[in-house]
């Protein structure tokens, strides 16, 4: 089976983990992507936010959530009252998965990671969470929710509540929509307000 496990150094801090993740070959996604996009933020963060996988911009720059979805997320966190200095942001899968669409100027279009790839990459997320030991973890979107809470997770039914996560030492997870869903929605304002309202639950936990 695909797994990052043999690449994850035991007892390592975040810097050593990031360095080791740069050489991960635990699943085939490292082949087409430019680089590993490891998490970023405060090593003593009280909240760890988990996206799906890096996008095109993140793959180029090597940092999570630096593209359009990241701008929505930053604004929503601010509006909800979550201090960015208390956050660490990462992804369930650390390499960009995409297809190239020749008729669209060779644009690289994001493809959802498979369950096998999410499972393969989970040792990195588990190590990040273990080192940081946050008070709450936020799953951004259905894919991150399934990666943390299992394949039967439904974001529409289970968003906005604190759920224990057996896969991550029982840490509490709050799931919400992915910030990119705001960008795709017809009723952007309503969808954005839903994201902010879920993140207010996180702000309450941190109060
Ligand atoms: N979407 C994600 O899920 N993660 C990123 O880092 C960027 C966009
Ligand atoms: Fe390793 Fe994850 Fe990249 Fe796969 S996606 S090669 S498991 S870091």
From TrEMBL:
Name this polypeptide is given: Type-4 uracil-DNA glycosylase
SUPFAM superfamilies found in the cross-reference section: Uracil-DNA glycosylase-like (SSF52141)
Origin species: Streptomyces botrytidirepellens
Pfam families linked: UDG (PF03167)
Cross-referenced InterPro entries: UDG_Type-4/5 (IPR051536), Ura-DNA_glyco_family4 (IPR005273), Uracil-DNA_glycosylase-like (IPR005122), Uracil-DNA_glycosylase-like_sf (IPR036895)
Native organism taxonomy: Bacteria, Bacillati, Actinomycetota, Actinomycetes, Kitasatosporales
Keywords: 4Fe-4S, DNA damage, DNA repair, Hydrolase, Iron, Iron-sulfur, Metal-binding
Gene3D superfamilies, per the entry: Uracil-DNA glycosylase-like domain
Family: Belongs to the uracil-DNA glycosylase (UDG) superfamily. Type 4 (UDGa) family.
A single GO BP: DNA repair
UniProt GO MF annotations: 4 iron, 4 sulfur cluster binding; deaminated base DNA N-glycosylase activity; metal ion binding
Domain Uracil-DNA glycosylase-like: 38-200
């Amino acid at each position: 089976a695909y797994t990052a496990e043999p690449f994850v150094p035991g007892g390592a801090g975040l810097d050593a983990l990031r360095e080791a993740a740069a050489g991960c070959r635990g699943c085939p996604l490292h082949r087409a992507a430019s680089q590993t996009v490891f998490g970023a933020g405060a090593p003593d963060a009280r909240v760890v936010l988990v996206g799906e996988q890096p996008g095109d911009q993140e793959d180029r720059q090597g940092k999570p959530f630096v593209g359009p979805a990241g701008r929505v997320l930053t604004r929503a966190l601010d509006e909800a009252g979550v201090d960015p200095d208390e956050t660490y942001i990462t992804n369930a899968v650390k390499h960009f998965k995409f297809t190239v669409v020749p008729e669209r100027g060779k644009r690289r279009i994001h493809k959802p990671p498979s369950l096998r790839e999410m499972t393969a990459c989970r040792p990195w997320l588990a190590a990040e969470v273990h080192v940081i030991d946050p008070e709450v973890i936020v799953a951004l979107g259905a894919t991150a929710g399934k990666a943390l809470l299992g394949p039967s997770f439904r974001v529409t039914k289970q968003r906005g509540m604190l759920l224990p996560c057996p896969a991550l030492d029982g840490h509490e997870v709050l799931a919400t929509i992915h910030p990119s869903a705001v960008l795709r929605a017809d009723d952007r304002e309503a969808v954005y307000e839903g994201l902010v309202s879920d993140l207010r639950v996180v702000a309450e936990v941190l109060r």
